[in-house]
Each structure stands twice: as C-alpha cells, then as structure tokens.
Amino acid sequence: MSNPLALIGRTATYLLLLLAAFISVFPFFWMLVGATNTSADVIKGKATPGGALWTNIVVFFTSVDMPRILFNSFFIAGVGTALTLLVSSLAGYGFEMFRSRFREKIFGSLLLMLSIPFAALMVPLFIMMANLKMINTYQAIILPTVASIFIVFYFRQATKAFPHELRDAARIDGLKEWQIFLFVYMPVMRSTYAAATIIVFMANWNNYLWPLIVLQTNEMKTLTLVVAGLTSAYTPDFGVVMVGAIFATLPTLVIFFLLQRRFVEGMLGAVK
C-alpha cells in the first residue's frame, strides 16, 4: 500500500511541473494565436485563432525588406557564432593544456571581467568603432562578441574531461599542436561545440542593444531590430508584430531541436 504522504508529494510535484510548463509554453501559444488575429482582437485578449493570418503576413512582408533583413541576421549570427567558437575554444584549450605560473591569475582576471555590465562598455566601445570607421558595418557587431569570456570558461571546464592520453598519443605520432586541436580535440569535444553553438547563436541572433546603437540604416538592421521597430509605431499592429516574432523565433528553435541531443550531452560534460 502506497504511502499517502508520498502520493501527496508526488501529486504536488506534478502540479508544479504542469504550472511551470504552462508558464513556459503560454507565450508561444499567445504569439501563434495573436498572429492569426487583428490588432484589436490581440488588445482585447482574444485567445482563440482568428482569420487574419494571411493579411498579417502580407502586411509584414510589404513593410519589411525580408530577404535583406534575414541575410543581415543570419550573416551576423552565423559568422559571429563560428568565430566565437573558434577563438573561445582555442582559448579554453590553451588555458587547460598549457601550464604557467600566471595562468590562473590571468584566467581569474578574465572571470572578474564578467562582473562589468555591458552598459559600462558601450560608450568606449562605440568611440573605438567610430575611430576605426566601423559604424554601421557587420564588423562592429561581430568583433566585440568574438572573445566571449563565458564561452572560454565553458570550454576550459569541458576540456578538463578531455583524455590527455589522446594528446600524448597524437604527439608521439608526430602531430603538431594545431593538428591535435583540429583533428583530435574538436571531434572528441563535438558535444561541447554543439551546446556552445546553441548558446552563442541564440545570443547573437537575439542581440538588440548593441546593434540598435551601431546599425544606423534600415538596410543593415537585423530581424530583432525590425520587430522591435514595429512596436514603436504610434498605433502598432500587434497581429503583424506577432508574425514578425514568429519569424524571429523560428531559427533559434530549429537550431535547438537539431542540436538538442548534443546540447544535453555538452551541458553534462560528455566527451566521446
């Protein structure tokens, strides 16, 4: 016979999980339903599908240069993610594999920089980009994100589980350090790379504040900026805004579901 207290505890746990799931899923449900309704229905709080989806899609595509905006977003997020993974994994590999009496002090100083808010860096960073003639360019968005301290920390912690015997065996076989990194380390750490890809891509794709400051023409704007701009109108069309939000959400969902299994393995520190 089951324990009544255990049954009550299990029921309470499931209820809390259901509540958490509802809170997590409801914004997506509201976004999908809102995209099918008119702005007036969204304002009224209508929570059932309507018949304005096609109209909202047409208005959105006539208001926005979608091919150019998607190119900007994918180029910035894709190139930024690739460069961040390369630079940060190299740094994490170096911090863990090469010993120096200053190593921990330098690494500790880097971690301390995580406490500096981005708002404190915006003005000097903007002045730097202006002096380099990079305002309103892709470089101004990508370069400041390449050296991610958090991703360096993440790769260093993951590298602690990397089998050093593989590195020693590769050295005996005559491989140089860069060959060990490319042909031994990267394939073994693919789960870590997958998890880092999701984290970095989502951060680059959803980046709002810095692109808002640096990108000054409509031709250079990203999808995040465009969707935010739709809400700043005097009378925003919330149905159209929901359509834009769907298009802005889809790429991150696709990346996550494609790499979901690797993401879990990478977060658990799996090495294969």
From TrEMBL:
It holds the Pfam family BPD_transp_1. It is found in: Cell membrane. One of its GO terms (cellular component) is plasma membrane. GO terms for biological process: transmembrane transport. Residues 70-259 form the ABC transmembrane type-1 domain. It is a multi-pass membrane protein. InterPro entries: MetI-like, MetI-like_sf. Keywords: Cell membrane, Membrane, Transmembrane, Transmembrane helix, Transport. The chain crosses the membrane at residues 12-33, 69-95, 107-129, 135-155, 180-203, 238-259. Belongs to the binding-protein-dependent transport system permease family. This is Carbohydrate ABC transporter permease. The lineage of its organism: Bacteria, Pseudomonadati, Pseudomonadota, Alphaproteobacteria, Hyphomicrobiales.
